Amino acid sequence: MMKAAVLASPGTIELRNDVPIPQPGEGEVRIRLEGCGVCASNLEPWAGLECMDYPREPGDLGHEGWGRVEAVGPGVSGLVTGDRVAALSYRSFAESDIVRADMAAKLPPELDGQPFPGEPLGCAFNIFHRSDIRPEQTVAIVGIGFLGAVLCHLASRAGARVIAISRRQESLDLARHYGAAETIFMHDHYAIIDQVKQLTGEAMCERVIECVGKQWPLDLAGELTGFGGRLVIAGYHQDGPRQVSMQMWNWKGIDVANAHERDPAVQMRGLREAIAAVADGSFDPAPLYTHSYPLERLGDALDATRDKPEGFVKALVTL
After folding, report:
1. How do beta strands 161-166 and 96-100 pair?
2. 264 part of a folded domain
């Protein structure tokens, strides 16, 4: 038996100690988890979705896990017991989880002892690819949390001029740390547009990445995109339909990229690129891991992800 968190009902986590340890099947491995990141996409199920059945499966919603392979199923090559990995699995708010072997990536010795929520790091690297950012472009990033901060680093490292837009001074300071050249408080729609016009000589931005997942930031991102530019939707919009100004998008002739990848091969490419960047020291995610909770306090971790107390960027659940 193992310990696992169960989302019993909206706003209620039950910790169970009697969950059968899962057994890996053909092409699968079981990972003894060291930890799992908490994702903003967990918040709608936490608050309650009409389309979702409760209670959820043990460990459900946890998809940012890392740990060590503890059992290997038939037909697996390339992974052995004891390998430390980051994985793309889906029930990692538990002591162990099952994953397809081809959806787990080895962590090199340089990362020993470091937390590694691989899924969101890989997601950021893949969003960067979809953004097609080039040297000397102006890139606005709307919303600076974990994802926005990583993208500040990647865009500035690519030679772009990054304008970071967010609601909190500490978020803007974080954006500066990761390479943003300019920062703007996300407070007034038209004032932000005017500031970006001033910074760009009225041209606006060749690339805009929306990282919030709400209506107003999406509206703002469209306004900040220049003629022939690209609007990249990285925010996870799961709380209802959106309206967009199709007239403006048509008039500007902009490209719109929904940048959440679903191709497993592409997901793994981003994960491996993130592993390599952290291992060789070209990217340091440590400042982003601001809050840590044991599995018994998963509810507190979800509340912190929602409420964003002072200094909060990302919560990790440790096991």
Report:
1. unpaired
2. no
Domain finish residue from 258, 273, 294: 258
Provide the pLDDT for residue 50. Answer: 85
| pLDDT higher than 90, residue 240 | no
Which residues, at least 6 apart from 59, have a Cβ–Cβ distance to it below 8 Å? 4, 5, 19, 91, 92, 93, 94, 97
Contact status, residue 179 vs residue 157, Cβ threshold 8 Å = yes
Alpha-carbon distance of 155 to 139, in angstroms, equals: 7
Which residue type does 250 have?
N
Contact status, residue 173 vs residue 310, Cβ threshold 8 Å: no
Detail the DSSP E strand segments found in 178-237.
182-185, 205-210, 225-233
Q: Which two tokens stand for residue 242?
A: 């959106």
Of 129, 130, 125, 135, nearest to 105 by C-alpha is 125
Q: How far is residue 150's CA from residue 234's CA, in Å, rounded to a whole number? A: 12
Contact 13, 6 (CB under 8 A): yes
Closest CA to 295 of 62, 27, 20: 62
Side chain identity at 16, as an amino acid letter? Answer: R
Q: Which domain holds residue 89?
A: 2-106+285-318
> What pLDDT, on a 0 to 100 scale, did the predictor assign at position 51?
86
User: For 198-208, how does the pLDDT look when each residue is reduced to its tens digit (9 = 90+)?
Assistant: 999 999 999 99
Distance CA 76, CA 25 (A): 10
| b/e 169-206 (16+ beta carbons within 10 angstroms → b) | eebbebbeebbbbbbbebeeeeebeebbeebbeeebbb
CA distance 216 to 218: 5
Any idea what the CATH number is for the domain that residue 247 is in?
A: 3.40.50.720
Answer whether the bond into residue 55 is a cis peptide, omega within 30°. Answer: yes
Structure confidence by residue, pLDDT tens digits, 242-256? 999 999 999 999 999
Looking at residue 217, what DSSP letter applies?
A: H
> The pTM is what?
0.96
Q: Residue 56 sits in a domain of what CATH number?
A: 3.90.180.10
